[in-house]
Amino acid sequence: MFDKILIANRGEIACRVIATARRMGIATVAVYSDADRDARHVSLADEGVHIGPAPAAESYLRADVLLEACRQTGVQAVHPGYGFLSENARFAEQLMDSGIAFIGPGPGAIQVMGDKITSKSIAEKASVNTIPGSNEVIRDAEHAVEIAADIGYPVMLKASAGGGGKGMRVATNEQECRDGFERASGEAKTSFGDDRVFIEKFIVAPRHIEIQILVDTYGNAVYLGERECSMQRRHQKVIEEAPSKFIDDATRRAMGEQAVQLARAVDYVSAGTVEFVVDADRKFYFLEMNTRLQVEHPVTEQVTGLDLVEQMIRIANGEQLSFAQEDISVSGWSVEARIYAEDPARGFLPSVGRLTRYQTPESDDAVRIDTGVREGAEVSMFYDPMIAKVIGTGADRDEAADNLMSALDRICIEGLAHNTTFLHHLLGHESFRAGEFTTGFIDEMFPDGFKVDAPAPDMLARLVAIAAFANYGQCQRAATLSGRMPGASTTVAEDWVVVVERVEHPVKIRAVDGGCEVDLEQRLFAIRGEWHPGQLLAMLQVNGEALSLQVKRIGAGYQISQGGASIQARVVSPRAAELNRHMLFKELPDLSRFVLSPMPGLLVSIAVSEGQTVKAGEEVAVVEAMKMENSLVATKDGCVVEVLAAVGDSLVVDQPILELE
């Protein structure tokens, strides 16, 4: 077995590989850029090597620098994780030429399967079902329109070297096809250094199902069941699960056998994933093959009991698989949610900043947390915005989803925007619970981003009662402080008013053993437990139900969050509430005449000039952030008064780009 390996990656996946290597008694070497000098994966590894500046092109994508790090540390193998150079055939070849094992497939398989055009041709020859379309590389936008007309709309424009949802656009007409080609080729060039794009038929109401395979150097190949990855946003997976509620045994077997056929056709070795798109009739078509570990691999591990990283290491070490296809069994259910630094209320735009507070539950049989950050870490614009993966496992699908939702309640994140409330909403949605959704579900349900609805009446009442409970406890502590003036009261009033969104909720609260009772609008809430300022999580019993809540002091008020719902409340005396009714509220300034940058990023292009007339919905600029190009459009008809930023500028959130009149 290897004595020492280098992980040519960062963040969550680097930490994940280190954990398995440590369990196997293998020493690890981490690599890091300037931005990751204090990162979690660096502290977990046995050694660390600095590889360059923050931009990935100058560090994590530098094969020469990584090879030098291997030589310096004397490693015997490299695990590439996912992203960066994980599917770079030249890097794998250079390692092998240097006598260093690549913990992944051979360069040949990476080369042919990493190109979507070539891989589709190979799949056809291997009798694997493929999507109707053209394998021809698109020359320009007009060529794209010509081919799309032959295939028939809707079509999908896809970067040949793409992955992770980058370089993909759906077009339903000629104009969308032209625009989609420009965006897809631009993202492909930025992310992969390869701007080739091809077109295929877009399957209506599709499901995204993928098959995990393992193949050793002795020709033994197995499939480990399927993963359901249809809950996506902008072609990027958000929630994954294993197995799939939609797939039956016959389809599962057919997909698994075709995945193995394809692997054998390219002499594949190591762990890999064959992705399929499945229509409403369970007809499935080859989508692509990922010649690496997938982000969502934990759900397969949870239901099969296999450590995929360990299997990859053993295969790279020349070991034979210790099990055959008939030995593979799936037990229970597992659901994974990806926590991203993004703002669902602003169209899911990336959020950057420092994790001023970050707390997660401990992993156990019901919950697994895979994370690459820690409190104080910075989520920068240079890399993927993933904060953590949270995996819930249970005897059945509902139990797994419930365990995942409970874990989300116990994850505290402060310092930047994140999507935990959105994930809660998805996991509790009736369509998800019924297993009735497609890859278009999120885009169709939330075309303008996710807006948090006001809590339902029962939930609102519960959160109001907890706000009163938190305030009462704080007042009790204050009443016992020493140094008070003679005669000062040491008792806390029972009557209070909880103000939420300028709506008053009178409450009467009294202390009882172990907590309080709150009388709210003729409803009694018996709350047991305690909370004090600075405590991120409150574990309470509310009317006998155990709850995990986040209670945070904000100025003179409280933010109470639980079950995906949240309120900001001020708890005041009845007299203060009476006076508050006479307060004036300042109206927010009208910024509708400005086009603002919705995120930190690079201004890639400006499509208009001063004095030009624009129509609502017309593209005026493109901002690149975290490897994605984001088109900004005019929100109303008008004339460009002034262009306030220049191409190449690094923008901050809400920075004006141009002004309209």
Description:
- The protein is α+β, with helices and mostly antiparallel strands.
- Helices cover 28% and strands 33% of the residues.
- The protein contains 17 helices and 39 strands.
- The strands form 9 sheets. Strands 14-13-10-11-12-15-22-20 form an 8-stranded antiparallel sheet, with helices on both faces.
- A hairpin with a 5-residue loop joins β10 and β11.
- It is globular and about 85 Å long.
- The termini are far apart.
- The mean pLDDT is 92.
Write a brief structural summary.
The protein is of the alpha+beta class and 661 residues long.
Radius of gyration: 27 Å
Tell me what portion of residues adopts beta-strand conformation. Answer: 25-35%
The major beta sheet can be summarized as: 8 strands, antiparallel
The number of distinct helices, counting runs of at least 4 residues, comes to: 17
Question: How many beta-strand segments?
Answer: 39
Secondary structure: elements and pairs:
Layout: E1 4-7, H1 11-23, E2 27-33, H2 40-44, E3 47-52, H3 63-73, E4 77-79, H4 89-97, E5 101-102, H5 107-114, H6 116-125, E6 133-134, H7 141-151, E7 155-163, E8 166-171, H8 174-192, E9 197-201, E10 207-215, E11 221-233, E12 236-242, H9 249-265, E13 270-278, E14 284-290, H10 297-304, H11 308-316, E15 333-340, E16 342-343, E17 349-350, E18 353-354, E19 357-359, E20 367-371, E21 378-379, E22 386-394, H12 397-409, E23 412-414, H13 420-428, H14 430-434, H15 441-445, H16 457-479, E24 495-500, E25 503-512, E26 515-520, E27 523-528, E28 537-542, E29 545-554, E30 557-562, E31 565-572, H17 574-580, E32 594-596, E33 601-606, E34 613-614, E35 619-625, E36 628-633, E37 638-643, E38 650-651, E39 656-660
Parallel strand pairs: 1-2, 1-4, 2-3, 4-5
Antiparallel strand pairs: 6-9, 7-8, 7-9, 10-11, 10-13, 11-12, 12-15, 13-14, 15-22, 16-17, 18-21, 19-23, 20-22, 24-25, 24-31, 25-26, 26-27, 27-28, 28-29, 29-30, 30-31, 32-39, 33-35, 33-38, 34-37, 35-36, 37-39
Helix pairs in contact: 4-5, 7-8, 12-13
